[in-house]
Structure formats: C-alpha cells, structure tokens
Amino acid sequence: MITNQLISEIKKKQSFLCIGLDVDLNKIPPYLLDTEDPIFEFNKAIINATHHLCVAYKPNTAFYEAYGLKGWKALEKTITYLNTHHPEIFTIADAKRGDIGNTSTMYAKAFFEDLAFDSVTVAPYMGKDSVEPFLAFKDKHTIMLALTSNKGAFDFQTKTIDNKEVYKHVLETSKGWANSENLMYVVGATKAEYLADIRQIIPDSFLLVPGVGAQGGNLQDVCKYGMNNSVGLLINSSRGIIYASNSDDFAEAAANKALELKKAMASELSHYFKS
Ligand SMILES: O=C(O)c1cc(=O)[nH]c(=O)n1[C@@H]1O[C@H](COP(=O)(O)O)[C@@H](O)[C@H]1O
C-alpha cells in the first residue's frame, strides 16, 4: 500500500486508529478455546466488529510465535483474511526484526512476500545494512523503533553521543539511507512531549504511536506535538480494545472501545484540519 492510500483512508474514516491483535489464550473468552483455531476466531470476530473504525491492524508476532506452528498458521489466516476482505486497511507485522543484510532480506521476504503485510517493525541497533534490505521492497513500509514507550527507552535511546540523543541520531542518520521514503518510525505515546523535537527532524514521516490505553499514553498530547499536514500518525491500542470483555460480548465491547478512540480522533482531526 502506498502512503497516499493510507492518508485517504484516514480522512475517509476520520480515524487514525491501529488495533493491536495481541492474542493471549488466557485472556480470550473461554468458549473460543473449544473451536479449531481460537486465535483466528478471536481475530476474525474483532476485525468484523471494528474494521470500519480503524485504518490499521498490528498483530505482534510474539503472541503467535508463542503458540508454535498453530500460532503461525493463525497469523497467516489473519493476514489473508484482512487482505481478502479489507485490502484498504494497512497491516503491520510487529516483529521488531533486523540482522546482517542477507538475513534481513529473508525476514523482509517472510513478512512482505510470504505473509503479504504492508509493513514490518524493525530495530535500528545493527544500522544501515540491517535496515536497507527491508526498504528495498517497493510499496512496503519499514517501521523503525525510534523512541519506545517503555521505561528501558531511557537506558540507551535518550543517552547523548556527540551532543545528541541516540534516538535523534537514529532519525537523522536513517533519512540518508536508500529508499528512506519507505521509512516510518515508532514513538511511544508515553513520550508525547518528545514529539515536538522529533517532528523537527522528520516532519513528513508517518509515526506508529503505541502506548495509548493500557500504558497510559494521552491521545490529545500525541496529536498536539506529533500531527503533521498529512496527519502522520497511527495510534495503536491493543489490550485496551481487544480485552474490553472476555464474555460472549467481547467483539461488541471491543468495538465500543474502538469507537471511543475513533470519536476522540475525529474530534482532533476537526480541530487541526478546520475546513
Ligand atoms: O513496536 C511497537 O508496536 C511497540 C513499541 C513500543 O515502544 N511500545 C509498544 O508497546 N509496542 C507494542 O505495541 C503494543 C502495545 O500494546 P498495549 O499496551 O496492549 O496497547 C504491543 O504489541 C507492544 O509490543
């Protein structure tokens, strides 16, 4: 998917919500455990109930890898279901990969070709030659960790080297990499106040912003400091939406939570994009 399609979908739906499909079998309604593929059944019900409210879905691969072959099959069925029934929706494989060049190429093939995701999350630690293989894929996006939502972000990412924080080096340096127009960046919603500085370095890039909901990030602050002329934000919530209920009404409860966030987003859009 090209970025302009994502932007027009955001404008059409008045939403820049990304729903995280982080499926934990201990948290889903117990009756689903009797079905042949509980993870896929759960995802399908959530997608059917929420697809009109969001513009992206982000399965975190950890929640599938943890269940071995069955988990990976459920991930494959989920992305195929999305690509078949909702091709307009942006898909993110949250896998946080990155390795020496030839290995990164194989990771990229796994997520872009075999599973046909629109994007994959990547860690920048191994540098240019570990990320460029992902960027080489046309009309695919590489979402690189910049400033993450967790406490550990302060261990390395905010440390100063040559008078500049490491996460700023990541942003600046990566702008010069081949096909850098295919880059998006992760910035945690819990670090909204850093977004003003971040926008100075990458004014035009899309940002994936996780951490609203269960981690306590604030939507209004993220918009205040992070929104650009093309919106430029995908705000993710996983647990706060998909585990709103673990009874028969789980999909409806998830849709209600997604609707709350979507309404708050529509209100931000009307504030920043007055017609
Ligand atoms: O790359 C991510 O998506 C990510 C980066 C980050 O800095 N913080 C973060 O929470 N995430 C992911 O975003 C999701 C957040 O989930 P909730 O806290 O349940 O909304 C999880 O899949 C995390 O792995």
UniProtKB/TrEMBL annotation:
Pfam family, one: OMPdecase
Pathway of action: Pyrimidine metabolism; UMP biosynthesis via de novo pathway; UMP from orotate: step 2/2
The enzyme's E.C. designation: 4.1.1.23
GO molecular function: orotidine-5'-phosphate decarboxylase activity
Positions of the Orotidine 5'-phosphate decarboxylase domain: 16-254
Keyword set includes Lyase: yes
GO biological process, one term: 'de novo' UMP biosynthetic process
Reaction catalysis annotation: orotidine 5'-phosphate + H(+) = UMP + CO2
Positions annotated as active site in the UniProt record: 96
Entry annotated with the keyword Transferase: no
Enzyme class of the recorded protein, top EC level: lyase
Keywords: Decarboxylase, Lyase, Pyrimidine biosynthesis
Family: Belongs to the OMP decarboxylase family. Type 2 subfamily.
This protein's name: Orotidine 5'-phosphate decarboxylase
Organism expressing this protein natively: Hyunsoonleella pacifica
Encoding gene, per UniProt annotation: pyrF
